[in-house]
Amino acid sequence: MRIRTDDEVYRVDAVWLGPPRATFPWRVRYVAYGVGIAVFLLVLTVERRMGIGFSFFSTAWGLVVTIVLTKIICSRINHERPLTAVSVMWGRELTAPRERPAGAGGAVTAARIRVNPTRPRPRRASSRRPRGSCARMKEVRGVRKAAQPARR
After folding, report:
1. Mind listing the pLDDT tens digit for each residue in 62-98?
2. Residue 70 lies in a domain
3. What is the residue range of 31's domain?
4. Is residue 110 part of a domain?
5. What's the total number of domains in the chain?
6. How distant, in Å, are the alpha carbons of 54, 63, 114 from that of 58?
7. CA–CA gap between residue 10 and residue 2 (Å, rounded)
8. What is the DSSP letter of 104?
9. Where is this region: Disordered (predicted)?
10. DSSP H or E segment with residue 56
11. What is the C-alpha radius of gyration for the chain, rounded to an integer number of angstroms?
12. What does the alpha-carbon distance between residue 81 and residue 32 come to, in Å, rounded to a whole number?
């Protein structure tokens, strides 16, 4: 037994079919016209802020950029994910709190080095050990023991 779903109802795009023999040569959903107008105004605003003057070629390139951006945006939206849900998701993704990673390095500072206000005093001469081969201590793997006399 085969169960039919209602997916075919949603596959129909809301596009303007127009009168017979007078339809557009392209197939675009209604929402794409609204997105395209908003993107075109945004692209023209960015062009002016960048110092690009208003001319035929700047407007033509703005139209090309608008078509590409509108196709990208409209490829992400459908009946299950409408434009409002995608724009709210995008806004929340941009404003979500992020974990601040620890610094990976940078300038070295001496901010954490403790400095004493007084100089250390030198040791007294009597507190030193006598110099000799047997009196010297040798550290081997963390264990201190008397150094062995040199063999000849």
Report:
1. 999 999 999 999 888 887 888 899 899 989 999 999 8
2. yes
3. 9-95
4. no
5. 1
6. 6, 9, 61
7. 19
8. -
9. 115-152
10. helix 56-75
11. 38
12. 14
